[in-house]
Amino acid sequence: MKVILEARDVSYHYPGDREAIRGISFHVKKGEKVALVGPNGAGKSTLLQMFNGMIRPGKGTILFDNEPIRYDASSLRQLRKRVGYVMQNADRQIIAPTVYQDVAFGPANLGYDEKAIHEAVALALRQVGMAGFERRPPHHLSGGEKKKVAIAGVLAMDPDILVFDEPTSGLDPSGSEDLMELLEELNHEGKTIFISTHDVELAYPWADRVILLLDGEILEENVPAVAFGDPELVRKAHLSVPILLELSQELGRRGFAQPEQKPRSVLDMIHILENLLQHKTCCHPSPGTISVFNVDEGDLSSVSVWMQARPGICIGAMGTRAKMCAAKENLTLAFTYGVIDKCILRALRGQDSLILTTNAMAARVGARVEAYCKESGTTICVIPLMSDSDTGSRE
Amino acid sequence: MFETLLDDAAQNNAFRHIHPGTKILLGLGSLVICLVSPTPVVPVLSGLILSMVLLVPARIPARIYGELLLAPVVFSVFSIVVLLFMLGGGDVVWEFSPVPWIHLTITTNAIHQSVLILSRVFGCMVSLFFIALTIPMTDLFNVMKRCRVPVELIDLMMIMYRYIFIFYDQAKEIWQAQKMRLGYQRPKESIHSFSMLCGMLFISSWIAGEDIVRAMDCRCYNGIMPSLDPMEPVRMQSFIPVVLYLSGLGGILVAITTGIVVFS
Lengths: 395, 264
Prior knowledge:
The complex is a heterodimer of chains A (395) and B (264). Chain A is 40% helix and 20% strand.
């Protein structure tokens, strides 16, 4: 994969202060999800602000698309269009008196014409699920909604890489999960995503790669299971071991599970336990099915008959548009994040579920279920639902 | 308190989707008619009708509207009491000498004048409240842009409007923190607490100012503040009643002044 962002021996110190960043080198590949994890004051925000040229490193270079960043006004504008930066405090990022004006701020300043601005804003608001809020002033929005508007403001410029400083700070647990799901969705639409956080429980299942930062230096750079798996490192970085990882380590120490098994989700954990208790399988003899409906391909209302025929079915939605469609049809969603895993868990208990999904996420359901089935040796049927037939299913 | 109250009402009333130009025409039109009216009948009529319009079809909560009206009513009633004694002319209705060297008199002309002023204040206040309660600031910015108010001024106003609420929340937080730790207990200490609040607010506005510049830079700022044009066009079903109402009010005014209709 192509490298999109690279830091080469970067150092920085604030005027009259000790060094905030001390000789850091790393790279981010296109389409990756990277989490920069470290305690408060580790230099996370400083490092992030170097990516879009807000802070110029004292020593070393930052490369974007294999070109060193240039710091003249027009190059910086070009860079900031491609590196979208979402600030920690949405109130500080939203500058205009209405949602529309704020989201239109970037495109307008990039010199788009009226029509292009309108399209960019409509698309960005749809992506974050805030369509219809155009005329609302920001002080009438909740914390989570403000965050989404701030993200839409950056998405409207169609950047290649999105940089988030503490994306979940100030959000409630379900808001945080929703946001991580949105980041996942944006990643599937082709954006590279780089976040800083100190929430290991969120970063652990989400990130492709984790960079542990402490006192301006990289402590460890690896896949989450390794970076978070070393208690010594984690203690040094003032973090905590993710609970699933700790549980599997403890099982490993007692000889119950192989130490190389690193569960990233409840489903993985169940799989490990299942192998442990092979005689008493916790799996239902005939697993349930997972139906998938793509809201981008058909009208959701056309499957209502199908749903009425199955009153016990649980519905999950992946992707902002799918969630909006469900809200329009007054469907009660049982799952809005970690949907596939939760549906597999249901299927293992012999229950059926329906996943509403969008174009970007549709392929993921099949891939994830197939991967799980291969690993565990079970078969779970994934049935794509078509909108035009009222029986609604084909194998 | 009032600024958030007004903003809430303006954002949530049932006239939210009527074109702001129509609403401004109604507000300013009745304001002018109330101001030029030589008789108290027209402003009182206009005030009552607009109040009913605000309360019933526009669905402004009666409590908010009452609280808003209370402030100018109290103020103008006190002023009128003074005016009653200050103005002269006509027959003496009532005389009062609290001490031998002060004579207070109320005359018929003074009563006429005071009633007229009171009614004008009432009519004009209601007209202004109509604008304040039914047109959100964001729509007013659009109207200003149409009226060729310099863009720089509008941009500044937009940023100020955005930050009023942030600073208001901040001030409230600081004030609460002071109260919780027993600030504002004695008069002298209140002054100290208040000055501390102002100082803190100044520092945080300074930081916020730097943050805005950074936020704008992050999003490729090049001197443009986008605008949001009114979504709703001028609709005849709201525009025609406004024109009819204003011409009716104007008609009554003309009829009274030219003496076609005589109110005793």
